[in-house]
Every structure is written in structure tokens, then in C-alpha cells.
């Protein structure tokens, strides 16, 4: 894939808690120049103004996922009301580890129902999960009406995206859902490997450096 094609798969991301409005504006300007699909910002940065060709994404229940589903739903709804086109929610990892799959689905569905007009991505924190848990999370996300499954927040000590996790997620959801690789992708080789494994969206903060290494 060439530089422009990869750029169109990128959510250009700034989620540092200490980020200022000026930092966010710099990322928006970069996204416009690079031709990325979107910018991804924290909820407290909303609303933001972007060019028409740059969508606005935000996060929900971030970064732990350890929030009541009603709180996640309210947060997501407020973000969409403030202009977010897409919401990346963190799954409830306690429920995942306890194998409470109906409750995992209910957690996701609460957010889905709160933002009917927006695109929903579910962050499963794949590096902290077994293969069986990755598959079950993807299945619960699909049942709950999610549009994408996403590997990682980039904040978990277990790590970020891996080629193995992306390939397993793609195998599980087929072409019915998108797969977003995020967390620890810092080189063009990393980005291309994730795309080849099945990712059709990338969460990157080093977008400019990665795209500079592509033709």
C-alpha cells in the first residue's frame, strides 16, 4: 500500500491526559496535512473543529473499562452530542476474565444503544487476553452491534497490538466487522504488518514518521 492508502486507515491519536487544546490542534492540523481518516481525542477535548475530510473519534470508559455500563453509555452519548463521529469503548475486563459473556455483551450494547448514529469500536485489550477470550470478546461485540473490534488502548502494561491478535480477530469477525490495530505501532513495517494481518484501521500517534517511510 502506498502512503495515501495507509493514511486513509489511520486514526491520528492524541490521548495523553496532559494534552492541551494547543496539542490537540497540532494533531488536527497534522491529520489534515497527512490525509488521515480521523483524529482521536479524549472526551474532555470535545468539541473540536476538523476539516470535512477528517472525522472525529473519541474514547469511552478509557483506559481501564472498569466503569458501570450506564456511565459508559452516558459518556458516549455526551461525546456524540459534542460532535464525535466514532467512539472507541473499552470492554469490561473483569467480566471478560470471569467469563460473563452475557454481561460483556450487555456492557457493549448499552453504549451501542446510546449512540445509534455513530460508529462503535470495542477495545478488547488483546495483549491481556487468551486466544479464547479474544474470540469470545469479538463474538460478544458482534452480537451487541459493534462496528469494529480494536486490539488495545495503548495504556495496558500487557502491551499493545500484535500481528497474531489482529489475524485472530479478523478470522473471528470475517468481513462483517472492522478490525483496528492500536498500541505500540511505531514503524512503517509495524503498520504494514498489521494491515496484512487484517487490520483496516490503525490507531497511531506516530503517523507522520510512519507515513514518511512509505512511498
From TrEMBL:
Localization, UniProt: Cytoplasm
E.C. no: 4.1.2.4
Family, per entry: Belongs to the DeoC/FbaB aldolase family. DeoC type 1 subfamily.
GO cellular component: cytoplasm
Function recorded in the entry: Catalyzes a reversible aldol reaction between acetaldehyde and D-glyceraldehyde 3-phosphate to generate 2-deoxy-D-ribose 5-phosphate.
Pathway note: Carbohydrate degradation; 2-deoxy-D-ribose 1-phosphate degradation; D-glyceraldehyde 3-phosphate and acetaldehyde from 2-deoxy-alpha-D-ribose 1-phosphate: step 2/2
Record-annotated active site: 88 (proton donor/acceptor), 150 (schiff-base intermediate with acetaldehyde), 180 (proton donor/acceptor)
Database matches in Gene3D superfamilies: Aldolase class I
Catalyzed reaction equations: 2-deoxy-D-ribose 5-phosphate = D-glyceraldehyde 3-phosphate + acetaldehyde
InterPro entries given in the database record: Aldolase_TIM (IPR013785), DeoC (IPR011343), DeoC/FbaB/LacD_aldolase (IPR002915), DeoC_typeI (IPR028581)
Biological processes annotated in GO: 2-deoxyribose 1-phosphate catabolic process; carbohydrate catabolic process; deoxyribonucleotide catabolic process
Top-level taxon of origin: Bacteria
Key word Nucleotide-binding present: no
Chief location category: cytoplasm
UniProt GO molecular function: deoxyribose-phosphate aldolase activity
Keyword terms: Cytoplasm, Lyase, Schiff base
Pfam families linked: DeoC
Protein name per UniProt: Deoxyribose-phosphate aldolase
Amino acid at each position: 500500500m502506498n502512503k495515501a492508502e495507509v493514511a486513509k486507515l489511520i486514526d491520528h491519536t492524541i490521548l495523553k491526559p496532559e494534552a492541551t487544546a494547543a496539542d490537540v490542534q497540532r494533531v488536527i492540523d497534522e491529520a489534515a496535512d497527512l490525509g488521515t481518516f480521523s483524529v482521536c481525542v479524549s472526551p474532555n477535548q470535545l468539541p473540536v473543529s476538523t476539516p470535512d475530510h477528517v472525522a472525529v473519534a473519541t474514547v469511552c470508559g478509557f483506559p481501564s473499562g472498569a466503569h458501570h455500563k450506564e456511565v459508559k453509555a452516558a459518556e458516549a452519548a455526551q461525546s456524540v452530542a459534542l460532535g464525535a463521529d466514532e467512539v472507541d469503548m473499552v470492554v469490561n475486563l473483569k467480566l471478560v476474565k470471569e467469563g460473563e459473556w452475557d454481561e460483556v455483551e450487555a456492557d457493549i450494547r448499552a453504549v451501542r444503544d446510546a449512540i445509534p448514529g455513530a460508529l462503535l469500536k470495542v477495545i478488547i485489550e488483546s495483549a491481556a487476553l487468551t486466544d479464547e477470550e479474544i474470540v469470545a470478546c469479538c463474538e460478544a461485540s458482534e452480537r451487541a452491534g459493534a462496528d469494529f473490534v480494536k486490539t488495545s488502548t495503548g495504556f495496558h502494561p500487557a502491551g499493545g497490538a500484535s500481528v497474531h491478535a489482529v489475524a485472530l480477530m479478523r478470522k473471528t469477525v470475517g468481513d462483517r466487522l472492522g478490525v483496528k490495530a492500536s498500541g505500540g505501532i511505531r514503524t512503517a513495517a509495524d503498520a504494514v504488518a498489521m494491515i496484512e494481518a487484517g487490520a483496516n484501521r490503525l490507531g497511531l500517534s506516530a503517523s507522520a514518521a510512519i507515513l514518511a517511510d512509505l512511498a
